């Protein structure tokens, strides 16, 4: 039974991922991303990580994809823009400099957080934050802010890149004979 669930979820993930990459309509690509995120949630349920599955569906399939769709609709998919001419010549070099700066800040944050809390989270005093109550909260805090801090930093950068990619997908090159 586990193999069947894994194969079905893997097919959902692969079909959704191919839809995100291959669909030319940004709305359809976002809907394909929902299929991919639901497939990942099924894998979480199969591994008995029900909380992560709920977060996957509520936060990512719900909030993040709705944000992408909002950006797509806000920018107007039906409107075409001429991207061959740039109104600001310094825009791309400035974007490269800002990108390098953001990457440097993320690396500095990861390095300083590793120095502050240690590589395995030994220096993290969770009892000061949550008290002596639930040990699950302590374990979650140690995992998030200790062992997996790099993964969360990379995820935040990937989400920003995904929003920028969504914006770029909505821009279309004007055809030579049309003016709008």
Description of the molecule:
This protein is mostly helical and 180 residues long. It folds into 2 domains: 1-78, NADH-ubiquinone/plastoquinone oxidoreductase chain 6, subunit NuoJ (Four Helix Bundle (Hemerythrin (Met), subunit A), Up-down Bundle); 81-180, no CATH class. Helix content is 74%, strand content 0%. The chain contains 7 helices and no strands. It starts with a helix and ends in a 10-residue tail after the last helix.
Write the layout of secondary structure elements.
Elements: H1 2-22, H2 26-46, H3 50-75, H4 91-117, H5 127-130, H6 135-147, H7 149-170
Helix pairs in contact: 1-2, 2-3, 3-7, 4-7
Helix content range: over 70%
Shape: flat
Count of spatially separate domains: 2
Which spans have pLDDT < 50 for at least 5 consecutive residues?
173-177
Query: Largest sheet, described in full?
Result: none
Rg over CA atoms, rounded to whole Å, is: 21 Å
The number of helical segments is: 7
Strand elements, count: 0
**Order of helices and strands, N to C?**
HHHHHHH
Strand content: under 5%
The span between the termini is 56 Å
Please state the average pLDDT score. 76
Q: Which structural class best describes the helix and strand composition?
A: mainly alpha
């Amino acid at each position: 039974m586990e193999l069947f669930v894994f194969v079905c979820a893997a097919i959902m993930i692969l079909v959704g991922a191919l839809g995100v990459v291959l669909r030319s309509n940004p709305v359809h690509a976002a809907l394909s991303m929902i299929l991919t995120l639901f497939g990942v949630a099924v894998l979480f349920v199969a591994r008995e990580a029900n909380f992560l599955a709920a977060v996957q569906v509520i936060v990512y399939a719900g909030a993040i994809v709705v944000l992408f769709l909002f950006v797509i609709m806000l920018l107007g998919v039906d409107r075409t823009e001429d991207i061959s001419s740039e109104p600001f010549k310094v825009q791309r070099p400035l974007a490269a400099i800002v990108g390098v700066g953001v990457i440097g800040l993320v690396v500095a944050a990861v390095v300083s957080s590793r120095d502050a809390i240690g590589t395995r989270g030994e220096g993290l005093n969770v009892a000061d934050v949550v008290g002596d109550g639930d040990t699950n909260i302590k374990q979650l805090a140690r995992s998030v802010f200790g062992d997996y801090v790099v993964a969360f930093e990379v995820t935040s950068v990937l989400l920003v890149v995904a929003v920028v990619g969504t914006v770029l997908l909505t821009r279309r090159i004007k055809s030579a004979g049309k003016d709008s």
